[in-house]
Amino acid sequence: MTDQKWKTAITKTTPTDIRIKGYDIADIMENLSYAEVVYLLFRGELPNEAEAELMNAMLVCTVDHSASPPSVLAARTVASCGNSLNAAIAGGMLAIGDNHGGAIEQSARLMQQWAARIDEFDGDYDTLATKMADWLAENKRRMPGYGHKLHTADPRTVKLFEIAERRGYSGTHIKLSRALQKVISERRGKTTPININGAVAALISDMGFDWRLGKGFFIISRVPGLMAHAYEEMTREKPMRVLGPPPYEYDGPDDREM
Question: For 48-93, where are the E strands, in sequence order?
Fold first, then answer.
């Protein structure tokens, strides 16, 4: 008979005990912040003071960004149709994909691949960034995490990098991200800021997180914002209202008969 058991190294429960990565949930409740628990789940060990501060900053920085992002409009639309709070939040979550919320993962993947080559360039980040920009151009790819529709300088990036610098976590990936910003801006002929997705991507890479967790950082951060928008929609707005841009313009075929 095939062994039906499978394994998990995350949480152990007994009739009288709950332990996350070996730590008693009662001790966790009393001694750790939410950000520290998230770090523990991802890394398996407790964060130090610097890592705890950085983790908290990353979980706060993308908590909300106005009512216009697709995930917010999706959550509000589902709520407006008379669905439950969890359905509305789920609707917003399902709107998160490669084009909205996926830039952290995509940017971290590229950053980790290229930063691993720094020794090939004798520690010269400017040369590495130039080679990376050349590769992006040759492959007709746009670097995720750079540029912003609203911000000429993303205030969240400025603060996150400031904390990282103060805490000694401004390492290989942040240095590469800044060098790449310089190259991209020069080639475009205008300042192209590192947006918050690019900043988080660089920081989680310097902290040793796998790039495949990138989208998770955005999701964990954004859920409270989606919840607030869905609740506001339920309690303040009329049901079945039109959300998003003004009414669309039809440009399909003229009226016709079968």
Answer: none
